[in-house]
Amino acid sequence: NYIAGRWTNSTAGDSLPIVDPATGDLLDRVPLSSAVDVGTAVAAAVQAFPAWRNTPVTERINSLFRLRTLLEANLDRLAETMTREHGKTRDESLGEIRRGIESITHACAIPTLMMGATLENIAAGIDCETIRQPLGVFAVITPYNFPVMIPLWFWPFAVATGNTVVLKPSERDPLTHQHVVELAAQAGLPAGVLNVVHGNHTAVEALLDHPDIKGVSFVGSSAVAKSLYARAAASGKRVQALGGAKNHIIILPDADFDASAAAAVASAYGATGQRCLAGSIVVSVGDAYRPIRERILDGAASQKLGSGLDPAVTMGPLISRPHRDRVAGYVDAGEKAGATLIVDGRSAMVNALPNGHWFGPTVFENVQPEMSIATDEIFGPVIGLTRADSLDAAIALVHRSHYGNAVSLFTRSGAAARQFRFHAGISMIGINIGVVAPMAFFPFGGSRGSFYGDLKAQGKDAIEFYTDQRVVISKW
Question: Dihedral angle at the C-alpha atoms of 64, 68, 69, 74, nearest 10 degrees?
Fold first, then answer.
């Protein structure tokens, strides 16, 4: 754990292995920290808060400017570490770190983003103004699928606005962000401003219940997001809880079929399907079905499995053996439910790496809305193909899902795009975009069962979430 500017041994005796998912090699072990460890980290953050809050905002962001430079200088080392512990390709790792740097860049604009407003003479001799002030200690709890980018969605904004943070990263792949934390200290972030506690649900529950935690930023499954939101909110904390997804890609007959299918394949199979923006259900409208089906199959066949350190590889392993078995279970269920399995990735192997958690590209057709492969987030490289007679019918399919993270439409028609945007009812909407990932200066977050809270990640929402607006009325 990283507490008050020092790496500190956990008081817990239990730990978990961190395994390279491509080779099965043991990389390290991660402690399963106790509530005592969490309490120590929170105490360090509480102690650091007054001085950090009192630090001028221009000085606070200087450490973020320096961190941005250090991350750029260490891109290759960070990408290699991430590929070894997560399994994604090296190019995917580089892309993730660059998106994280984008968040830091936006957080460096806090001096303008945090500004208030004033109006004089709201009544005779009376002025009114609004100012934004930090709240104290925030908890940040993040998943395994983007071990650098997602933490950087949160803690740079929290510290730039004057708060202190306790980060609980995923216990599956915490090594890369350890390096980020070391670079943050090298960049001049004071001791206690950013603390890291490793662990599982025990550490999470201790953070949710701790009275000195003012708010919680979370990304994970929808079931956990919902329960975490309820538990933290019950104790008066602010919460932004981003959950899971089942994203649809709708393709109209007037779309560019080559570009549409390529975007759908990249969306579904990028990061081996382990991302909340994966377009896992492809809805072809009318005559689009046959040409899209052919191109999806070609895209699936073109994927090359292997270690992400190999530049020729396009798809790495799944994060763990249990998760591989879970994805296989969904494929089994899809077959039993009557969907037609036309590409089966369950038997995929990489002969040179027999201990890897391999799962090949998988494609179903005749997927019906009530099937588990259509309703559940599989979090693996599985595409479901289905048909719709019209755009309205395709949107109706989207509305049957209890998730609401992202949805995409491929078309050449501005009228259809406008109709889709008006009726989609989903927070993140793509027009001819396969992965609907906003830049850091726009908010990121879903709706319905994909998000619990009010203010989302990044953008203006981040500043509002990590600060409280004070209204000052003055008469002199």
Answer: 130
Cα gap 95→254, rounded to integer Å: 31
The series of mean pLDDT values per 10 residues for the chain, 476 residues long, is 97 95 97 97 98 97 98 98 98 98 97 96 97 98 98 98 98 97 98 98 97 98 97 95 97 98 98 97 98 98 98 98 98 98 98 97 97 97 98 97 97 98 96 96 96 96 97 97
Using the structure block, give the residue that is written with the tokens 């001819």. Answer: 432
| Distances 225 to 238, 401, 447 between C-alpha atoms, Å | 13, 17, 12
Which residues share a beta bridge with 139?
166, 216
pLDDT at 67: 98
* Two structure tokens written together for 63: 């450490």
**pLDDT on residue 350:** 98
In terms of Cα–Cα distance, which of 116, 197, 103, 182 is closest to 146? 103
| In the block, residue with structure tokens 């089906």 | 293
DSSP string, 260-278: HHHHHHHHHHGGGG-STT-
Q: With CA atoms as reference, report the closest residue to 103 among 47, 142, 45, 48.
A: 142
Cα 109 to chain center, whole Å? 22
Tokens 């809270």 map to which residue? 453
User: Do 241 and 175 touch, CB atoms closer than 8 A?
Assistant: no
**DSSP letter at 315?**
B
Tokens of 308: 């992400």
Opening angle at CA 50, ends 47 and 53, nearest 5: 130
- Catalytically active residues, by annotation: 276
Pairing status of strand 15-19 against strand 26-31: antiparallel
CA nearest neighbour of 395 among 431, 420, 361? 420
CA atoms within 13 A on the CB side of 273: 29
Helix (H) or strand (E) holding 323: helix 321-337
